[in-house]
What we know:
The chain has helices spanning 49-63, 78-85; strands at 9-15, 18-27, 32-40, 68-74, 90-97, 109-117. By secondary structure, the chain is α+β, with helices and mostly antiparallel strands. It has one domain (9-116): Gcn5-related N-acetyltransferase (GNAT) (Aminopeptidase), CATH 3.40.630.30. Strand 2 (18-27) and strand 3 form a beta hairpin.
Amino acid sequence: xxPQSEGSALWxxxxxxxxxxxxxxxxxxxxxxxxxxxxxxxxFRGQGLSRRMLTHAEEHARQQGFHRMILSTAELxxxxxxxxxxxxxxxxxxETAGAMSNKTVGNNVRRRHYxxxxxxxx
Length: 122
């Protein structure tokens, strides 16, 4: 799924040998890491796991020397939009996706792009 580039990683969240979530961080530039494929089974939401997943990805990015985390999500994912809005992410762009790609389903779905400056690792 991800190129084997330095600083990129993919994690799975398991409970009782069942995968309940996934998330990744992909190197985009020397300064930017992109949060990718963040998903948590709906049965496990509202327990703080999403926050822990995001914090883990941000910490990984800091330790790899990245200065910024970027991400995007479809507007129709209202819970994700609220989560990123409440997690210190700044909305940088809203685009309407006309064509399908590896990041969007197309069909004129509006996609929100976010960024967050990461404090240097201690």
